[in-house]
Amino acid sequence: MPENFRAEEFKVEGEKLLARIKELIHAGNIRRVIIKDRDGKTLIEFPMTFGVAGVLLAPQLAAVGAIAALLTEATVIVERQA
């Protein structure tokens, strides 16, 4: 990871995953989001480009919603600008 970014990692229950992702996106300054299953396998990874509108995020959020329905627990890694 480049020096001007920092990563945050946290666990989320599957049912709360989509809400947490939306909350993080709304907070801003996110570079990338990675969602992993309980075993550490990457399920989805998507970049957050500067100025992305909500309409452009709809496919990623739909995928997160589908993943959340299948998981009991997920790990979310968020890269932020330092």
Please give a structural write-up.
This protein has 82 residues and is α+β, with helices and mostly antiparallel strands. The protein has one domain (5-81): Tetrapyrrole methylase, C-terminal domain (Methyltransferase, Cobalt-precorrin-4 Transmethylase, Domain 2), CATH 3.30.950.10. 34% of the residues lie in helices and 38% in strands. The chain contains two helices and four strands; from the N terminus they run E-H-E-E-H-E. The protein has helices at residues 17-27, 54-70, and strands at residues 5-13, 30-36, 42-47, 73-81. Strands 1-4-2-3 form a four-stranded antiparallel sheet, covered by helices on one side. Strand 2 (30-36) and strand 3 (42-47) form a beta hairpin. The N and C termini lie close together (12 Å). The model has no long low-confidence stretch (mean pLDDT 83).
